[in-house]
Amino acid sequence: MVHRNASISNETISREQTIAELRKLARICKWATICITTALALGLLAVIAIDLLLILPGLSQGSCLQSVELQAGEGPCLAIVGADAQAPLMLVAHDGHTAIGSLLMTCLALTIAISVRRLFFNIEKEGRPFDLECNQTLRRVGHLFLIGGVAVRLLGAVITGMILSGFGGSFTDAFAGQLFEPSMLFAGLIICLIASIFRYGYILQKQDDELL
Fold first, then answer.
1. Cα–Cα distance between 56 and 197 in angstroms, integer?
2. Where are the beta strands (DSSP E) in 55-165?
3. CA dihedral of residues 169, 170, 172, 173 (deg, nearest 10)
4. Which of 24, 81, 141, 205 could form a disulfide with 130 if both were Cys (CB 3.0 to 4.6 A apart)?
5. How many Å apart are CA 148 and CA 191, to the nearest integer?
6. Partner residues linked to 89 by β-bridges
7. Cα–Cα distance between 169 and 164 in angstroms, integer?
8. CB 88 within 8 A of CB 81
9. Which of 124, 126, 103 is nearest to 44 (CA)?
């Protein structure tokens, strides 16, 4: 009986220590994610501000589609150039990637960062990863990675192609770059698998709580 009580006491201490370490790690990850989210948001706002203040006013006076070289040695880019030709609006980079696709990927990364921050916040608050809300958040992150791997750059290329066609360019010029992200697709599948494991852990956690 004495040995059994000692075993239960050691298990309780071990569980409390594990929860404390888990909350500490979740707190660190939460603040790191907040910093990343802030940096992404500020970068996105800076791009929007540059477009609104510097580029779009010049394009409103008349614009055309041209091949320009933004930096020496990188090759030509397809861009909309205004009347003053000082601040072109880049559409397709020298490597084939579209500016709209990159902008959509940044928005997706910001959405993922916000969801991950919520995951760490829940773990810090509840002290357990096997929670139904954590499972739903993790599954949502996996779906966002799948969307990013399959559809985001493709959607950016389609929108860019329509803009090119409107300025007399070729629709297919927007499809020269990489349209899919295999790494994000693979990461999304892994995260969805981990979410399923977390759901199984949630069931075991619930049964364990009912027994205590």
1. 49
2. 63-68, 77-82, 89-92
3. -40
4. 205
5. 13
6. 80
7. 5
8. yes
9. 103
Residue identified by tokens 């397809």 is: 78
Q: What is the mean pLDDT of the chain?
A: 83
Contact criterion met (CB below 8 Å) for 160 and 98: yes
* Residue 44, pLDDT above cutoff 70: yes
Give residue for tokens 């803009």: 163
Instruction: Tell me the two tokens of residue 81.
Output: 């150039």
Alpha carbon distances (Å) from 70 to 79, 81, 125, 201:
10, 12, 48, 52
Place of tokens 């609104």: 52
Both tokens assigned to 196: 């399923």
- Kindly report which listed range (1-10, 112-121, 198-207) carries the lowest average pLDDT score: 1-10
In whole angstroms, give the CA distance from residue 108 to residue 116: 12
Percent helix, strand, coil in the chain, to 5, is: 75, 10, 20
Measure the CA–CA gap between 73 and 8, rounded to whole angstroms.
Answer: 68
Q: Which residues contact 87 (CB under 8 A, 6 or more apart)?
A: 54, 55, 58
Q: Please, are residues 75 and 69 in contact by the beta-carbon 8 Å criterion?
A: yes
Q: Is the dihedral of CA 61, 64, 69, 70 positive or negative?
A: positive
Give φ, ψ of 16 to 5 degrees. -65, -40
Torsion sign across C-alpha atoms 15, 19, 24, 28: positive
User: Which of the pair, 89 or 41, is modelled with greater confidence?
Assistant: 41
